[in-house]
Amino acid sequence: MTIGDEILFGQITDTNTQWIGTELTNVGIRATRKTSVGDNAEDILAALGEALARVDLLIITGGLGPTKDDITKHTLCKFFDTELEINEDALQLISDFFNRRGRPMTELNRQQAALPKNCTYLQNDWGTAPGMWFEIDGKIVVSLPGVPFEMKNLMTQRVLPRLLTFFKPPIIRHKVIRTIGIGESTLAEMIEFWEDSLPQHIRLAYLPHFGQVRLRLTATGDDENQLASELAYETERIMPVIKKWVYGYDHDEMETVVGKLLMTQHATLSTAESCTGGFVAHKLTSIPGASRYFTGSVVAYDNDVKMNTLGVPMADLLDYGAVSEQTVSTMAEGVRKLMHTTYGIATSGVAGPDGGSPEKPVGTIWIACASPSRTTTRMLTLTKHRAVNIELTATYVLDLLMKCILEEVAQ
């Protein structure tokens, strides 16, 4: 449960529950619901009651700051029919925190050491808002600060070890198969026989994301080695059916996979981007060590840059336009020559939301990959949404690059 108006107003993105869900799964605790509540005591009380009617463990983040809008502690006191009192250990830690920084501690800061009498104090090593652990009728309520790095430290150092002594959770393990170039419904029909034959303790989920579909297998049991063996077996069993669309597993991203391929082949890459505006280069350079294979990029947004830097003939721009197979081919070849790289990839299109025409509506994108032996192009027909089109184009041009590398290797 996240507490705070700022989450409901959309002013900040809730990353806490995603991280917590992953960590709970890793220790065998299955998250069943996520709730966001504003800074309203009645709403928080109602959400607490509803949650504890359903689950054995409730983890709360947010509302533990020193200001008046931080009401989580007071509301928990009301819920557990108790009152606040100064926790001397928490007070000493907060005092030391301010002394180390040479800052005065205000009364508001002091009140952060006031905790419900019936909670167990969880020391926050990285901030001034303590964590709290409550036990009620065999169930656990944990309240943590909403600041992500403080929450993560408390979860790792204080909460997860206690949970494993309180509960005896089963082991939960995931295996993710990453596919591209096949739709979710088509894929589901293709592997229906396999899904229906999975053991009861292994479940399959379909996770579509920007032109990709991730197949997540979740196995639950008591023997970690057996679960790992079963997941490997089921993965191997379906591969003959879906292998042509599989590009990676688990945490592999497309940019990670192509980076490994390039390093394996001692190859280099450069990019020429128009409609993606450098987003492909951003994805490539988000991987540590990308400098070993990625040389640089030309963001050729203007036609003058396409002509003067990448060598696109004016005649091609006049006859075929910037969004064309001819233009994007020359862009890929031009940047490959300019940067002296093994491969060059390029994007040019109408990202939207305006700028389209009857012949080339919004979402018309051309991508290209120039390799040592050939230049391969592909036309995409995408959406009317600019951000989605940029994401999809980056995914598809990296997929095209991966296929080009594999073709070169096979020759």
TrEMBL record:
<dbReference type="InterPro" id="IPR001453">
    <property type="entry name" value="MoaB/Mog_dom"/>
</dbReference>
<dbReference type="Pfam" id="PF02464">
    <property type="entry name" value="CinA"/>
</dbReference>
<dbReference type="InterPro" id="IPR036653">
    <property type="entry name" value="CinA-like_C"/>
</dbReference>
<dbReference type="InterPro" id="IPR008135">
    <property type="entry name" value="Competence-induced_CinA"/>
</dbReference>
<comment type="similarity">
    <text>Belongs to the CinA family.</text>
</comment>
<dbReference type="InterPro" id="IPR041424">
    <property type="entry name" value="CinA_KH"/>
</dbReference>
<feature type="domain" description="MoaB/Mog">
    <location>
        <begin position="1"/>
        <end position="165"/>
    </location>
</feature>
<dbReference type="Pfam" id="PF18146">
    <property type="entry name" value="CinA_KH"/>
</dbReference>
<dbReference type="Pfam" id="PF00994">
    <property type="entry name" value="MoCF_biosynth"/>
</dbReference>
<protein>
    <recommendedName>
        <fullName>CinA-like protein</fullName>
    </recommendedName>
</protein>
<dbReference type="InterPro" id="IPR050101">
    <property type="entry name" value="CinA"/>
</dbReference>
<dbReference type="InterPro" id="IPR036425">
    <property type="entry name" value="MoaB/Mog-like_dom_sf"/>
</dbReference>
<dbReference type="InterPro" id="IPR008136">
    <property type="entry name" value="CinA_C"/>
</dbReference>
